[in-house]
Automatic annotation (TrEMBL):
Protein name (Swiss-Prot/TrEMBL): RNA polymerase sigma factor
Gene Ontology molecular-function annotations: DNA binding; sigma factor activity
Similarity-based family: Belongs to the sigma-70 factor family. ECF subfamily.
Gene3D superfamilies in alphabetical order: 1.10.1740.10, Winged helix-like DNA-binding domain superfamily/Winged helix DNA-binding domain
Length: 182
């Protein structure tokens, strides 16, 4: 089956007779990418699954508000990143976690989870990324792992390109220092 364009998916969703099929195609088209971004932010599979599901629920409930100023991909990533950041913030507040404790929980998950594979170097990188401030971690993940342009990242995060470049630069420098110190 050929993949449909955003416009074709939106047309299916707009038609009451094909609305369900349109939503199914939206999810099939973008679920893996959305999950990937979320997973890099929250690390734990079950949390990433829940946030991904919430992202698509929110998208489905608000699809009529989508104005087409960006691609569906960008719009979904914006929802997913906001959901991820909100989740992390709520988790810290709910459990009165200092940031370091929550990072330790996620770092332990990297070491012990059968869901996460990779070499020791990859695990060290993922743990170092966890220690970045959330905004820098998000920017680093979008640029390094997702290979997004600063323009796409700006649309997703609603942050200026200059601020994104600065965040990425600071993240890379912190990671270099941390990874070469060991």
């Amino acid at each position: 089956m050929n993949s449909l364009t955003d416009l074709e998916i939106l047309d299916l969703i707009a038609n009451p007779l094909t609305k369900e099929k349109g939503f199914r195609l939206l999810i099939e088209t973008y679920q893996r990418k959305v999950y990937g971004v979320v997973r890099k932010m929250v690390i734990i599979h079950e949390d990433a699954d829940d946030i991904t599901q919430n992202t698509f629920i929110k998208a489905c409930n608000n699809i009529l508000k989508f104005q087409g100023n960006s691609s569906l991909f960008t719009w979904l990533y914006r929802i997913a990143t906001n959901e991820s950041l909100n989740f992390l913030e709520k988790k810290k507040k709910r459990y009165f976690f200092p940031v370091e404790d929550h990072q330790e929980v996620m770092a332990n998950y990297i070491d012990t989870s059968p869901d996460i594979s990779g070499t020791e170097i990859e695990r060290k990188l993922h743990k170092a990324i966890l220690r970045l401030p959330e905004k820098q971690r998000l920017v680093f993940n979008l640029k390094y792992f997702e290979d997004l342009s600063y323009e796409e990242m700006s649309a997703i995060t609603e942050t200026s390109i200059g601020a994104l470049k600065a965040s990425y630069h600071h993240a890379v420098k912190k990671l270099e220092i941390e990874l070469t110190a060991e």
